Amino acid sequence: MTSRTADHWHILGAGAIGGLFACRLQTGGAAVTLLSRDGDEDPRTIVLSGDATGQYQFAQQSVTHREPVSHLLICTKAWALETAVQAVAHRLSPDTVVVVLCNGMGHAAQILPLIGDAVLALGTTTAGCRHGTPRELIVSGIGTTQLGNHVSSETPPAWTTVWRSGVPEFNWESDIQPTLLNKAAINAAINPLTAIHRVTNGALLEPPLDAQLTQVVREIQALLGAGNATEIADRLPASVKAVCEATANNHSSMRMDVELGRETEIESIVGWMLHHLAPNPPATPLLQALYENVLKAHPG
After folding, report:
1. Residues 156-161: contacts with CB within 8 Å, 24+ apart?
2. Which of 31, 178, 295, 299 would bridge 8 by S-S if both were Cys, CB 3.0 to 4.6 A apart?
């Protein structure tokens, strides 16, 4: 049941993860509207199955409308983020809260010039979700969700109330950057290998790919060390192993994108780590080769 006084959240990028969080925010008491970039304004039904169940109804609205947006959640692919924000920027104000829940790094630098004085928060989730039928989203892991302002902020803002109510395992981080970097490092180790070899996450723990996983983890550790992120580097082997074990039967989004001939998020994950993490990065031959091979799979 949606409260009349609840925050109103607009969702930009209502695919699998965006659709899941639309359902979660509505469960938490928010009014939720899905934003359409193709002009579709017909009401939309989302049915959750798997690790979460339920049926939810949402209004849809074109991004071209003029009415202000008070709370905006962006769940697009990382490569589509800038274009998506440009489409809705005219509806933002200094009172708007913008939450970016996209893979990879560097998003604040991308969109801060586009959102004026709106408040920006960044986040990450380990929730798993994929499309079933056109109306169905199959939830394959409840996961944890972490948000934080793009600059450090100890006190959770009032708008997180509906997140705490509707989003399982939700946490506000006073400094979100280490959390985002840790997630990007794990993704950089797992996703390109699964995409190039067309395997599940768990296959990286078995011969012959376990040797490549070990090497790429060491190369990412070297990058993290050069970027003064030694704590994340020290935890990385155990973190990668834990994710591969927990998601052993899963297909990474990067693998799916490569197989379907779609643009991948390689640039915001591996490209960012290679080119922006450290001023003088060490040699990372395997990671560099994986980066180049995924780029070749979809030149853009």
Report:
1. 157/97, 157/119, 159/7, 159/71, 159/97, 161/7, 161/28, 161/29
2. 31
Model confidence over 245-269: pLDDT tens digits?
998 988 899 999 999 999 999 999 9
What per-residue confidence (pLDDT) applies to 177?
96
Q: Which domains does the chain have, with CATH numbers?
A: 8-174 (3.40.50.720), 179-297 (1.10.1040.10)
Q: List the alpha helices (DSSP H) in the chain.
A: 16-27, 81-88, 107-111, 161-166, 177-197, 209-226, 230-246, 253-259, 266, 272-275, 285-297
pLDDT of residue 3: 39
Q: CA-CA distance, 142 to 166, in Å (whole number)?
A: 12
- Under the phi-then-psi rule, with left for phi > 0, alpha for psi from -120 to 50, and beta for the rest, what region is 271? alpha
Structure tokens at 296: 């070749």
